[in-house]
């Protein structure tokens, strides 16, 4: 039976991270809403439950709760932050609001408890309320200057609470806490690894698809590639992939994508040349959201037409991954940008079912799985590239001339990053056609030409990013090469904006 940990989501900002940490510790985990019914929590197997942090105060009206029957299942429970306070409330402890919020790196004193083996003395705190008296049957097992009960345990009932956030990297060796909880306290095998999922996923795909046809859109990105290779292994040439060249790709990208998929991975793939179609639709359009909408809609039209030509498919393959599933199940924050991922094709375009083999995996797991099924390393570790492509990196209206300048400068930038060995340390790096023109001087002559923006960021999830500190000599070479080699560019600027307040893409 598979070991499975349920992470009950009480609304904290680090909750996906908790589910990832559990998987990194070798146990399959699911993040599900706090008010999920007991049957869903129990599922086919249940090894442990983790209660997450959250923004509420446990005594507040409407504070989030869960089905307290989980505490009678005899399954170990770990409460984190709000989760700990919730445990305290349910079992009759006392919680009080502190005058000063305990926030940031905090020194902690641990008692000699297996939960804390290997941790450092600095943890990450972020709370107003804290437990002031542990419930009956519990004992305090850690304290800080502001928080006498920074962790507690009821060994009898196997209930544990920690006030700090072990899931964030700011907690020294925080990952050890999850390993200790799962191995020492829950006595689990911890043998889950995404790279071993191949056979199981292939069996599931075969059972779902039978001898029907599957059609999928391949973007060249990691998720759609891994999903396609899996389905291809499962049902062979029952899968047809469609690759839409919308003309908004990087230099040589369409050819490279076709070469890898067709020659290296032996996929049954059709390239559709829709370059003129997209450019025509985009002509004169300046507003970023309009551009995204046009590209998204046109993509669907092209895909629809091509799949009809193939006689229709019974199943649509999508590269949906777990964060998409989690986020679509919650009321998400305001729309900053509408993302038209090819993974977001609407269901109502004539397919009877969806095949989503990666829907329970996080991005790093998709990568591990991808490598284990023989997808080339460079493809698996490709930097993310947005569905609307270069259109959202040309500020203002999109023309072929601007795209050419952008492609050329982007190629040089990528080549220099690769040559300087920085490629895997940087999350995304690309150039932007700013549309601005400025005056310069080249070979004694006045120039009045375009300004190219250079963008490079570090991140682990694209939610927050830092601009990358590329060494000056590398920046110098990039600037000299772009100005020297790309006609109509006479100035290069480096974007030093983090996210927030900026976003990664300029549009
Ligand atoms: P922003 O610019 O919002 O981007 O900080 C976050 C991440 O998402 C990518 N991105 C997109 N991906 N379709 C996609 O598939 C889109 O419309 C889209 N817009 C942005 C962006 O490259 C970054 O990785």
N-to-C terminal Cα separation, in Å?
47 Å
Q: How many separate domains make up the residues? A: 3
Q: Which molecules other than protein and nucleic acid are bound?
A: xanthosine-5'-monophosphate
Low-confidence stretches: none
Major sheet strand order: 2-1-3-4-10-9-8-6
Within CATH, the superfamily of the largest domain carries the name HUPs
**The CATH topology of the largest domain is what?**
Rossmann fold
**Could you say what the CATH architecture of the largest domain is?**
3-Layer(aba) Sandwich
CATH class identity of the largest domain: Alpha Beta
Total number of helices: 14
Sheet-strand content, in percent, reads: 15-25%
Major sheet size, sense and barrel closure: 8 strands, mixed
Q: Describe it for me?
A:
By secondary structure, this protein is an alpha/beta fold. The chain has helices at residues 15-24, 38-42, 82-90, 174-185, 198-209, 222-235, 253-264, 275-282, 288-309, 322-328, 363-372, 377-380, 400-419, 472-485, and strands at residues 4-9, 28-33, 48-51, 77-80, 94-107, 109-110, 122-133, 139-143, 151-154, 159-162, 214-217, 239-245, 269-273, 315-317, 353-355, 428-442, 445-458, 466-467, 489-494. The chain folds into three domains: 4-185, Class I glutamine amidotransferase (GATase) domain (Rossmann fold); 194-380, HUPs (Rossmann fold, 3-Layer(aba) Sandwich); 399-494, GMP Synthetase, Chain A, domain 3, CATH 3.30.300.10. An eight-stranded mixed sheet has the order 2-1-3-4-10-9-8-6, sandwiched between helices. Helix 5 (198-209) crosses helix 6 and helix 6 (222-235) packs across helix 11 (363-372). Xanthosine-5'-monophosphate binds at residues 292, 336-337, 339-341, 384, 386-388, 428, 462, 499, 503-505.
């Amino acid at each position: 039976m598979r070991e499975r940990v349920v992470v009950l989501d009480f609304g904290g900002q680090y909750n996906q991270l908790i589910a990832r940490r559990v998987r990194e510790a070798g146990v399959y985990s699911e993040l599900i809403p706090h008010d999920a019914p007991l049957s869903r929590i129990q599922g086919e197997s249940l090894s442990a439950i983790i209660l997450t942090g959250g923004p509420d105060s446990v005594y507040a009206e409407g504070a989030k709760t869960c089905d307290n029957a989980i505490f009678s299942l005899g399954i170990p429970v770990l409460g984190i932050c709000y989760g700990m306070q919730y445990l305290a409330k349910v079992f009759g402890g006392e919680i009080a609001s502190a005058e000063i919020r305990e926030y940031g790196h905090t020194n902690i004193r641990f008692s000699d408890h297996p939960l804390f083996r290997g941790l450092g003395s600095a943890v990450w705190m972020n709370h107003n309320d804290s437990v002031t008296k542990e419930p009956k049957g519990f004992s305090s097992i850690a304290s800080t200057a502001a928080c006498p009960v920074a962790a507690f345990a009821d060994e009898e009932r196997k209930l544990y609470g920690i006030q700090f956030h072990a899931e964030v990297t700011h907690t020294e060796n925080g990952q050890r806490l999850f390993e200790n909880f799962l191995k020492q306290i829950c006595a689990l095998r911890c043998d889950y690894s995404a790279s071993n999922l191949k056979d199981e996923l292939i069996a599931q795909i075969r059972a779902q698809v039978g001898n029907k046809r599957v059609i999928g859109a391949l973007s060249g990105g990691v998720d759609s590639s891994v999903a396609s290779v899996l389905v291809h292994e499962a049902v062979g040439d029952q899968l047809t992939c469609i690759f839409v060249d919308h003309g908004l790709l990087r230099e040589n990208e369409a050819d490279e994508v076709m070469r890898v998929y067709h020659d290296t991975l032996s996929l049954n793939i059709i390239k559709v040349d829709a370059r003129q179609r997209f450019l025509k639709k985009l002509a004169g359009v300046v507003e970023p959201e309009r551009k995204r909408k046009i590209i998204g809609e046109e993509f669907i039209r092209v895909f629809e037409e091509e799949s009809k030509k193939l006689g229709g498919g019974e199943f649509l393959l999508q590269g949906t991954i777990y964060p998409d599933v989690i986020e679509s199940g919650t009321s998400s924050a305001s729309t900053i940008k509408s993302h038209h991922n090819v993974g977001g094709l609407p269901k109502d375009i004539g397919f009877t079912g969806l095949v989503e083999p990666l829907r329970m995996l996080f991005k790093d797991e998709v990568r591990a799985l991808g490598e284990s099924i023989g997808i080339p390393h460079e493809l698996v570790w490709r930097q993310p590239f947005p569905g609307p492509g270069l259109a959202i990196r040309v500020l203002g209206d999109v023309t072929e001339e601007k795209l050419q300048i952008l492609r050329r400068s982007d190629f040089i930038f990528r080549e220099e990053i690769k040559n300087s060995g920085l490629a895997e340390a940087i999350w995304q790096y690309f150039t932007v056609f700013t549309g601005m023109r400025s005056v310069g001087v080249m070979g004694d002559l006045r120039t009045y030409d375009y300004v190219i923006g250079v963008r490079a960021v570090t991140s682990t999830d694209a939610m927050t990013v830092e601009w990358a500190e590329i060494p000056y000599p590398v920046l110098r070479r990039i600037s000299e090469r772009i100005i020297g080699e790309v006609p109509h560019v006479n100035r290069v600027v480096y974007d030093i904006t983090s996210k927030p307040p900026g976003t990664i893409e300029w549009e």
